[in-house]
Structures are given as C-alpha cells and as structure tokens.
Amino acid sequence: MFQLPLFAQKAAVDANVVLDNVLAGLKADAPVRMDYIYKVYDDDNELLQGDRGIIYVDNGRYALLMQDMKVWCDGTTQWSYMREVNEVYITDADSEEAQNFSPLYIVEHYRSVCELSAASKGGLVAVNLQAKGDDNGVGSIELLVSGDDNRLVSMTMYMPGQGRIDVELDGYVADCGADSALFACPLDEFSTAEIVDMR
User: Fold this and answer.
1) What gap in Å lies between CA 33 and CA 56, rounded to an integer?
2) Which of 99, 114, 143, 170 could form a cystine bridge with 129, CB 3.0-4.6 A?
3) pLDDT of 135
4) The sheet that has 69-73: what strands, in order across it?
5) Average pLDDT of 8-23?
6) How far apart, in whole angstroms, are the C-alpha atoms of residue 98 and residue 104?
7) First to last CA, the chain
8) Domains of the chain
9) C-alpha to C-alpha distance for 51 and 150, rounded to whole angstroms
C-alpha cells in the first residue's frame, strides 16, 4: 500500500528530469537540424494528411520546411506558407498559433498544464502529459525520448473528438550551422502568394 504513492512520485520526478534533459540538450546543441515526418489522423484512425521535411531549432527560432507547408520564426515574427492555398500567414512569434510549431514551446508549455508520468518503452522513455482540464482541445501528449542521449524521437498529440497528430523526428544534427536568414521567410520566393497579415 505504501509503495503506490512512492511509485507515482518517482514517475513524476523522472518525467520532469527527462523533459529537463530534452530541453537542455536542444538548447545546448542549437542550432539543431532534424528530419521531420508529420501525420494527422481522425478519430477512426484514418490518415487525413501527411508531410515530411526538415526542422531547424535554435532556441526561440525555428524553421519547419516540408513539402506542403513551410514555417519560419525568427523569434519575433512567424510566417506560415500553405502550398495548397498559396498563402503566407504572418503572425507574432508569441501567439499561441505560432508557438505550437516550436518543440521547445510544446514541451515547456504543456508540462506546466499537464499531469506527468514516465515509463520505459522498448529502449525509449515514454513521457505522458495528461491534460488536467480542457487545454486548447489537447487531451494528452506522448513524447518518446531516447534513453541514451535524451533526444526527442517522436511526439503524439491526442485531441478528443478530433483525432491525433503524429510527429517523428530523426537525423539529429547538433550545431548544424544554420544562419539567421534560415529563420525568416524569403517572401520574394513566394511572389504569387497572397499575404495574410494576422498581427
């Protein structure tokens, strides 16, 4: 009987330590480059959308360069290009819409509004972030972290009644040499796109 509360406390502490290590590694290794696979499923587990590309993370700056969508954030402004509608959306970097593209923000924000637990899962550590209430429609998030180097391997966001988003990360390159220009949208390359400024 007395071991159950102790186990729960240990799991919560372990989850926080894992997330601390993930964040510390991303910040220390910046700028980081990773291969990125993105899939959206509905509640019936039907694939609705999928894309792949590269993500660069440099603390508050990031660039997500996929085939159908490209997102840049220089720490002040975020640009999102959607190929299907040929539009570039511009918003402030600290807006909720913008922040949800940043791995650092996702880990830092949701750990503060979720119950945490951790468990070993096939050589990885699975950190579960369970929403305490209705937080932007996200019910829970599962992060898989490499036990060897504390690197984020995948993220799954479960949204009740809306399905889930799967993100796979691979090909981690620390100190990848990305310069400042990479984190700003090259608007001249999208001269035919409609610009939608939401600031």
Assistant:
1) 5
2) 114
3) 53
4) 114-121, 124-135, 138-146, 152-159, 163-173, 32-41, 47-58, 61-66, 69-73, 77-82, 87-92, 194-197
5) 73
6) 12
7) 55
8) 3-197 (2.50.20.10)
9) 25
